Predict the 3D structure of the following.
Amino acid sequence: MTGTPEAAPQRPAHLRPQLIALVMLGGTFGTAIRYAIENAFAASGEHLLPWATFGINISGALLLGLLSELLALRMADAERRRVLQLTFGTGLLGGYTTYSSFALETLLLGRSSHPYAAMIYAVGSVALGFAAAYLAVIATRWVADRVGQEHR
């Protein structure tokens, strides 16, 4: 025994009540924001595609890419990065985006007289969501590199 105390191992995130509470808090706000947007831009009979859900999911993917890359580049403290990722990524953006509405709307489009619209909506949502997240990561790195060069 050396006499120096060793740091106690951290419990996994899913066993830490304070982290669960942060995810729930973020999810509450994200869900409320999504609800407000979906009500403000409620689908009507004039629109074939559910544009509110589409916009929410694409913007959520973009914001998640931005958040994840910012935290990876600028947050050296792993525990603080985890807290922010869980609060804003898992919680806020998890509540903001909606796979369940996307799945239901795709199913309803497929059952309607517009089965090709369902396929376009599903593939387009996934592809554009990935592209938005990827572009957010690339843009964040580019900006971080430029800011880093200016400060040298």
